[in-house]
Amino acid sequence: MKAVILILVLVAVVHATSLKDILKDEFNAFKLKHHKIYKDATEELKRLQIFVENKKLIDRHNVRYEAGKESYEMGVNKFSDMTQEEFKTLVLTNLNPADAQEGIDYTYNPSAKTSLPSSVDWRLSGAVNPVKNQGSCGSCWAFSAVGSLESHHFINLNQRVSLSEQNLVDCTRGYPYYNQGCGGGWPIEALNYVRDNGGINTESSYPYEGEDKSCRYNKNNIGSKISAVIQIASGDEAALASAVAKKGPISVCVDASLFQYYQSGVFNEPSCSQSTNHCIVVDGYGTDSVGGDYWLARNSWGENWGEIGYIRMARNRSNQCAIASYAIYPLI
């Protein structure tokens, strides 16, 4: 009996050791892929421990996903060495809803008689620029505004243009727009600036730096202009679908607190709140055989996150994550 117990103990020790080695190998591969360098051995050990806990959470979720109990898959990405609190603090932003509706020119009113296509993907018509990366600056709002504007510029003028997020980061801080640069902001104020300013510079003339700098707008380098900012009725997913289908990609803000581990599938999280902390662009919509109706949303965390930089978010599920609460687009 003692011999059997000893063998079981040895097997358990070997299994635990091999699992630890596997996780350490995965951590080393993670560091290499995402160019992670830590300041010292203590910090590296801390990040390893966080990575291991996150990997356990991911694996548990994916067991449920494989069993058909979850609509999306989790995976290791560049945020896998962060705690959930660090992710919210360092990656997401604080958005005050009171600032979200200032400067709206018109409200989009869809026709109830018009039928919509079952799916829309503006990438297929060439209206969508490649996924960008905001880096460590909390400038998602600028990328959301620019992402929508670039697409509407193409749709209306048949011209592909890459516009300057840095122009918005630098020039909408303080009066009268009160965005906070890398500390957060609203796409509505970004587009208000473009309208009031008579344009926004091109990316090539005013490249992205991912830091708060002084405003260096140059009227000789205008890439696009807008005449108005259009709001979609708050919380109305049917109106949002109509605007996406008929007008083009739409700037939206959402609760992205649970985006940290997303890898693929339809992100359906009923616990997602109506408080917003991140802004993205809705480039289309459709229906998935597993996850159901979804919004096709372009993020600004680079192509090595999610579905090549995209996330499919649950659609027609009571405005989940507030995706239809602050939807706007520019009028060219």
In words, what does this structure look like?
The protein has 332 residues and is an alpha+beta fold. The chain has 2 domains: 2-70; 85-331, Alpha-Beta Complex (Cathepsin B, Chain A), CATH 3.90.70.10. Helices cover 33% and strands 17% of the residues. It has helices at residues 2-33, 41-66, 84-90, 140-157, 165-171, 187-197, 237-246, and strands at 72-74, 106-108, 120-121, 200-201, 222-224, 228-232, 250-254, 262-267, 278-288, 292-298, 310-314, 328-331. Helix 4 crosses helix 5 (165-171) and helix 4 (140-157) packs across helix 6 (187-197). The longest helix has 32 residues, at 2-33.
Question: What brief labels describe this structure?
Answer:
2 domains, 17% strand, alpha+beta, Cathepsin B, Chain A, three-stranded mixed sheet, seven-stranded mixed sheet, 332 residues, single chain
CATH homologous superfamily annotation of the largest domain: Cysteine proteinases
Radius of gyration: 22 Å
String of helices and strands: HHEHEEHHHEEEHEEEEEE
Low-confidence stretches: none
